[in-house]
Amino acid sequence: MRKVALIHGWGGSYAATWQADGWDDALRAAGFEPVGFDIAGHGPQGGSHDPADYADLAGDLAARLPDDLFGAIGFSLGTKLLLELEVRRPGANGRLVLGGIGDNLFAPEQAGPVLVAALRGAAQEPPTPQVAALLDYARRSGSDPACLAAVLERPANPVLTEARLAQVRTPILIFNSRADAVAQPDTRLCAALPGATHRLIDGTGHVGLTSDIRFRDAALAFLSRG
């Protein structure tokens, strides 16, 4: 059975993101074996409240991924971690499907301080629609707010630059929505990964992408071509 890892976004969990949206069943029906777990600091199991313990989320992920992956599907933060791993060890995780990522890949988390304040109960004003959607996504995962705040406050990770992305060797599908205020535009990313396949759809926002059947169908078709 061809193993495919599913890596959720910041604030999410494997159960609340992938299982809730039917990805497990769809992958099995297409002949794949889904492999999933929660990013460090995420999910009902909790974790450390010390940002330093999340300094290398990609390394923590690599230690838990099986060696015989056929491919991996990421959303938002999960896509960043998968690209970081691809740069470190090109081709090690097979074909990559990356959803909810654009030129924000090259920039700091703009909503980070606002999200941290909200998670710690110190927000000075009502959240923007974008921040409110991310907080709702986090609530649905059952994650500890203090853990999620610590993840956002983690020490700076290596920046994914065009020079580093030039190491990418594996086939990649990048899938985004025009209504995604987090991951648009993606012109710089397209230029950095000219060999990748890019799909852009209308309709859904950032946190709703994994529940959009067009994303799931495109991911399965891309993986099935391998």
Automatic annotation (TrEMBL):
Assigned keywords, A-Z: Hydrolase
SUPFAM superfamilies in alphabetical order: alpha/beta-Hydrolases
Molecular function per GO: hydrolase activity
Protein name according to UniProt: Alpha/beta fold hydrolase
Native source species: Paenirhodobacter hankyongi
